[in-house]
């Protein structure tokens, strides 16, 4: 493959990076190999399993299906930046804390993708029903948990966020 | 000596010790990044059976960034062949069962011939992964196609194509076991039946595939290998053996593993090839399997065909059972008879069967090798026996619950001898449990009697509710051993080292709970080092529902040894009698005189060798002890699963309405983690029963090679699972624990198939095969077959 590397500028987890990339390099490989952000995992590289889910300009995407060059100028959030989204000095975001409280993970490989999907979901729907949670989770595969405890973790987080809104105004207020 | 109990055992301790997984800080093999690292990719066979006439690598070698290409020719004489199987067959079992074993020995890269689509033909190394893949694409292999055998029954025929040259037939091993007089009982019985059951081929599909990184430290020549394996010590032994290295110069680390479930229990070609290349090239080499490769290179599971004869009386008592089954082994047999003999050993289940015989035959075909997957032979056995019980019930017009109850081993009959040998060579002996009570709990939780009423009501409305039961027993905590080293470091921390690495089971939490209670410390005072061959001399691995039993017991044994030393040292320093000391809160004190105490840190610092030593005469330096637990035999867990389904007869879609698991795995260490294991196992079993299938065409080409057509169950497909725990302690280990990692996956195919047969009684389907896809359900609804369950025989 002839090299015609492109320069990209990208903001990841509120930090700006500049990178020189092959046009065929995937965004997931860029994040993992060039930025060292290995929390984003590759489970299929075919856009099915959802392990590589990140937030791209505020919306979830499969980072295995995007090229790094497509991310030029984009703002990205990965699992490594999730804890910083916690408010009130909490060390973890409520969805992360929910995964600990309810054992929403086992081997941890699919977990970052679930967390990013659920971060977006709870922003959109702060008090979801179990059916709504399961429907939203249908794009992410987990082979360990059987999903039950992930659902429980989301319900825990939603309740925590609801409490936080009552105490402090809107949790997600900019 | 007394110790203050901290009471962590039995509590749902949260997985705080694994919090790295929710912050993106897990460390998997693909996350290992070393300076100057090269990347490898495999060229795999596109043919199921072919002779390799020539391999042309000239174009590949011209490409930018390419370091080299290795084919079978380049490794011949430099990497020895794999053993025919990694399974250890105990002498007592060999003498008792007298199996025929004649497996082929795989090579790391194909030598002149390929035997399945996916077999490694060449390995390519380049400066980055895409360049390695470009080069692999540029290699030209000239194949001469050979006839292909994909059907195991065909493989048995006298004129079948031989998968391996130099063999007389395709049988890789076979065995027969019998107790009682099956022929006599079959001949004399009032009722008999014959059935054929197929438990199809599917795979574990952990979300993380396999991967290997190898690096040679240039000054010491120490080879360090990171591998996504369930058996790091076995990988080390095999690398040393096949590359002819001293074992001491090889270190294997199983870092965080993104799911194991069985197929990562043996050693694969890449685990030898990547270290070989790192040694050849003097640079670190990395290989990460992608998902497409995973489906054609990582072992599949199950794939058994059973022909069963059974005799029973008017009340449904089983009088005799005979099973001749065939296991489609694929092209190689990495785990020997593990699955097949597990099937034989678990076929009797929780039932008393006076006359019993099994013949198992494993044959080669041109498919990916078959190896253990969660349950390892047990889901196949349970599918056969539990379907059979329901067929007997239907034939006699009895409730399937009643037939189970009439055949159960009763609690007062414990310990119960099942009359055949286990895989470890010991006679099978169910050590504890109350099988009728386990079933009762499942029935009550599901509301069985109300469900039966509801089923009648719905049937009158043209809706089809089905209730299916799956009972089983499981030999858990299998040997041959596992070890633990317990060490107190100078900061006072308890460090546990073991060879059994975790892949999400929660080892860090469970072993800390056990150690914390044994030592009277809090959980933060215990650290676990697992899956690193440098941390403990011997290790077996994590598989077969065994780690809590074996590692837990080893921690117990090592702690007992170390406590004796700690108390002798403390008695010396405190000028007290060891019997007057007590252990708790991270220190040793004189009973009744809490101010006369020494912390673990002070004791560890006193136990050093040399000038700072405060050891008494005759006590060796260091606060550490190692214990290898060798279980006498397995300890038997049991469970009853109950599935409630509704079938849409227009579409063939099965909807799971409820799923109950009543489970007895002895004393529980952490119910939260136990439930997690059960949920995950059941979800995999649901996938097996309804969605997942490894399908090949007649040319041996894989038809389901991605997550698009190999369907894992998602959050919409898996219902909430109701779990109930019974606790019949095991008499076979000091903690009273039994294993439970596999259990959840064992019964769902049986319970769901029984539920389907139950729902569709008016249509008299013969539900003897899974997965129960909509297509298959529609076929069952239209196919006119002689059927026993409708009483039409």
What would your notes on this structure say?
The complex is a heterodimer of chains A (174) and B (793). Chain A is an alpha+beta fold and 174 residues long. In chain A, 34% of the residues lie in helices and 14% in strands. Chain A has helices spanning 27-34, 94-101, 111-124, 130-137, 148-168, and strands at residues 6-12, 15-21, 53-56, 59-62, 75-77. Chain A has a five-stranded mixed β-sheet with strand order 2-1-5-3-4, sandwiched between helices. The longest helix of chain A has 21 residues, at 148-168. Chain A is globular, with a radius of gyration of 17 Å. The longest helix of chain B has 28 residues, at 547-574. In chain B, α11 packs parallel to α20 (748-759). In chain B, α15 links the parallel β22 and β23 (526-530). A seven-stranded mixed β-sheet of chain B has the order 4-7-2-14-11-12-13, sandwiched between helices. By secondary structure, chain B is of the alpha+beta class. Chain B is globular and about 85 Å long. Helix content of chain B is 28%, strand content 25%. The model of chain B has no long low-confidence stretch (mean pLDDT 96). The interface between A and B is large, with 58 and 58 residues.
Given as residue ranges, the uncertain stretches of chain A (5+ residues, pLDDT < 50) are 170-174
Shape of chain A: globular
How would a textbook summarize the main sheet of chain A?
A: 5 strands, mixed
- Most extensive contact: A-B, 58 and 58 residues
Please report the distance between the alpha carbons of the first and last residues of chain B.
Answer: 70 Å
Mean pLDDT of chain A: 93
Average pLDDT level of chain B: 96
Distance between the termini of chain A: 44 Å
Going by helix content, strand content and strand pairing, the class of chain B is: alpha+beta
Largest sheet of chain B: 7 strands, mixed
Return Rg of chain A in Å. Answer: 17 Å
Number of beta strands of chain B: 30
Order of helices and strands of chain A: EEHEEEHHHH
Taking all Cα atoms into account, the compactness measure Rg of chain B is 28 Å
Poorly predicted runs of 5 or more residues of chain B: none
- Beta-strand percentage of chain B? 25-35%
Continuous helix count of chain A: 5
């Amino acid at each position: 493959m002839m090299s015609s590397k492109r320069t990209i500028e990208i903001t990841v987890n509120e930090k700006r990076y500049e990178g020189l990339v092959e046009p065929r390099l995937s965004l997931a490989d860029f994040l993992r190999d060039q930025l060292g952000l290995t929390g984003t995992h590759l489970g299929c590289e075919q856009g099915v399993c959802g392990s590589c889910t990140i937030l791209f300009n505020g919306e979830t995407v499969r980072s295995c299906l995007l090229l790094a060059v497509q991310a030029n100028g984009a703002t990205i959030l990965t699992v490594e930046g999730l804890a910083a989204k916690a408010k009130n000095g909490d060390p973890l975001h409520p969805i992360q804390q929910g995964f600990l409280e309810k054992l929403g993970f086992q081997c941890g490989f699919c977990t970052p993708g679930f967390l990013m999907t659920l971060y977006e979901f709870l922003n959109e729907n702060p008090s979801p029903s179990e059916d709504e949670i399961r429907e939203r989770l249908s794009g992410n595969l987990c082979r360990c948990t059987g999903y039950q405890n992930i659902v429980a973790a989301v319900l825990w987080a939603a309740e925590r966020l609801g409490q936080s809104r009552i105490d402090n105004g809107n949790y997600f207020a900019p | 000596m007394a110790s203050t109990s901290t009471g962590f055992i039995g509590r749902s301790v949260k997985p705080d010790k694994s919090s790295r997984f929710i912050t993106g800080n897990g460390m998997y093999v693909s996350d290992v990044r070393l300076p100057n690292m090269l990347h490898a990719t495999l060229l795999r066979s596109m043919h199921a059976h072919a002779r390799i006439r020539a391999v042309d690598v000239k174009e590949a070698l011209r490409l930018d960034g390419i370091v080299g290409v290795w084919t079978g020719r380049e490794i011949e004489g430099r990497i020895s062949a794999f053993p025919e199987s990694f399974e250890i067959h105990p002498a007592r079992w060999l003498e008792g069962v007298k199996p025929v074993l004649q497996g082929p020995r795989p090579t790391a890269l194909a030598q002149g011939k390929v035997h399945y689509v996916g077999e490694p033909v060449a390995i390519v190394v380049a400066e980055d992964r895409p360049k390695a893949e470009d080069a692999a694409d540029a290699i030209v292999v000239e194949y001469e196609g050979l006839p292909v055998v994909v059907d195991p029954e065909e493989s048995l025929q006298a004129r079948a194509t031989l998968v391996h040259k130099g063999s007389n037939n395709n049988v890789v091993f076979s065995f027969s076991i019998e107790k009682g007089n099956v022929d006599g009982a079959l001949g004399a019985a009032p009722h008999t039946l014959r059935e054929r059951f197929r438990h199809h081929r599917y795979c574990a599909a952990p979300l993380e595939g396999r991967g290997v990184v190898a690096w040679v430290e240039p000054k010491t020549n120490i080879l360090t290998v990171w591998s996504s394996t369930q058996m790091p010590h076995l990988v080390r032994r095999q690398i040393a053996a096949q590359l002819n290295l001293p074992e001491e110069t090889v270190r294997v680390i199983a870092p965080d593993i993104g799911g194991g479930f069985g197929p990562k229990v043996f050693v694969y070609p890449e685990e030898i090839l990547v270290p070989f290349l790192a040694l050849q090239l003097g640079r670190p080499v990395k290989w990460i399997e992608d998902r497409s490769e995973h489906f054609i290179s990582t072992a599949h599971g199950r794939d058994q065909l059973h022909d069963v004869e059974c005799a029973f009386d008017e009340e449904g008592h089983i009088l005799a059972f005979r099973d001749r089954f065939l296991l489609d082994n694929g092209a190689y047999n990495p785990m020997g008879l593990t699955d097949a003999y597990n099937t034989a050993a678990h076929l009797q289940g929780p039932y008393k069967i006076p006359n019993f015989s099994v013949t198992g035959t494993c044959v080669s075909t041109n498919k990916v090798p078959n190896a253990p997957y969660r349950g390892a032979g047990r889901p196949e056995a349970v599918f056969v026996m539990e379907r059979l019980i329901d067929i007997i019930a239907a034939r006699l017009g009895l409730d399937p619950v009643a037939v189970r109850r009439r055949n159960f081993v009763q609690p007062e009959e414990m310990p119960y001898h099942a009359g055949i040998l286990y895989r470890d060579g010991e006679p099978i002996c169910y050590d504890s449990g109350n099988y009728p009570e386990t079933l009762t709990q499942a029935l009550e939780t599901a509301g069985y009697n109300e469900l039966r009423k509801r089923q009648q009501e719905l049937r009158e409305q043209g809706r089809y509710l089905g209730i299916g039961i799956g009972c089983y027993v499981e030999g858990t905590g299998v040997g041959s051993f596992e070890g633990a080293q317990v060490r107190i470091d100078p900061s006072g921390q308890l460090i546990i080292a073991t060879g059994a690495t975790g892949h999400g089971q929660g080892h860090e939490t469970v072993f800390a709970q056990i150690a914390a209670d044994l030592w009277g410390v809090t959980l933060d005072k215990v650290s676990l080092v697992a899956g690193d061959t440098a941390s403990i001399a011997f290790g077996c691995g994590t598989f077969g529902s065994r780690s809590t039993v074996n590692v837990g017991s080893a921690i117990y044994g090592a702690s007992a040894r170390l406590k004796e030393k700690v108390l002798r040292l403390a008695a010396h320093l405190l000028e007290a009698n060891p019997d007057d000391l007590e252990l708790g809160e991270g220190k040793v004190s004189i009973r009744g005189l809490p101010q006369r105490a020494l912390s673990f840190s002070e004791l560890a610092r006193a136990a050093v060798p040399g000038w700072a030593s405060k050891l008494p005469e005759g006590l060796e330096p260091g606060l550490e002890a190692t214990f290898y637990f060798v279980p006498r035999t397995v300890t038997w867990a049991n469970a009853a699963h109950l599935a409630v389904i509704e079938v849409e007869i227009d579409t063939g879609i099965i909807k799971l309405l409820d799923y109950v698991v009543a489970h007895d795995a002895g004393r529980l260490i952490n119910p939260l983690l136990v439930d997690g294991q059960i949920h995950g196992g059941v979800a995999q079993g649901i996938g097996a029963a309804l969605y997942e299938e490894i399908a090949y065409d007649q040319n041996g080409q894989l038809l389901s090679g991605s997550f698009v057509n190999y369907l894992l169950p998602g959050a919409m497909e898996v219902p909430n699972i109701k779990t109930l725990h019974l606790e019949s302690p095991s008499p076979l280990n000091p903690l009273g624990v039994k294993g439970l990692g596999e259990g959840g996956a064992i019964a769902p195919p049986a319970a769901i198939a029984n539920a389907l047969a139950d729902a569709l009684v008016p249509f008299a389907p013969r539900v003897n095969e899974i997965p129960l896809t909509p297509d298959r359900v529609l076929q069952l609804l239209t196919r006119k077959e002689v059927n026993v369950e409708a009483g039409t025989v």
